[in-house]
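SEQUENCE-TO-STRUCTURE ENTRY
===========================
What this section holds: a protein sequence and its matching fold, both as plain text.
Question of interest: how does this chain fold, as expressed in backbone structure tokens?
***
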Amino acid sequence: MEKSEQIVRIENMVNAILADKPSFFLVQVKIKPTNNIKVFLDGDNGITIEDCIKVNRKLYAEMEELAMYPDGDFSLEVSSPGVGEPLLLQRQYVKNVSRLLEVKQLDGQILTGTLLAAGDESISMEVTTGKGKKAETKQYEIPFSQIKEASVQIKF
């Protein structure tokens, strides 16, 4: 899916705002038809609501100054991706090493296990099947090119 010119422009603005905070990174920009702009940020060590508010204020002011939307007809939300949102960037995988991950592969196979490592080209996971004495643990190396969707699973 090709990105719209507006999304690219907003991504560039966000990246410029984040330039002096190297541990923060832009995950995604979404724009709904009602000019509702959602910016998802994350950080190698997490990101706080306060950080999101600061970025929101700067970005909003810049967008108004540039008159990107006539009559200020837009809304802006800056947040971190919610729990269960799919991981989109390699940096998100790195941040979630040792957490429980569900990975849907392009071939339809679904693996749920502990994320052991995230490299430049692939991730490694440990998956345990069966229970008790029949439990079997295997390690899998999954290239990013084979991952359709991956999300962190929360254990209760």
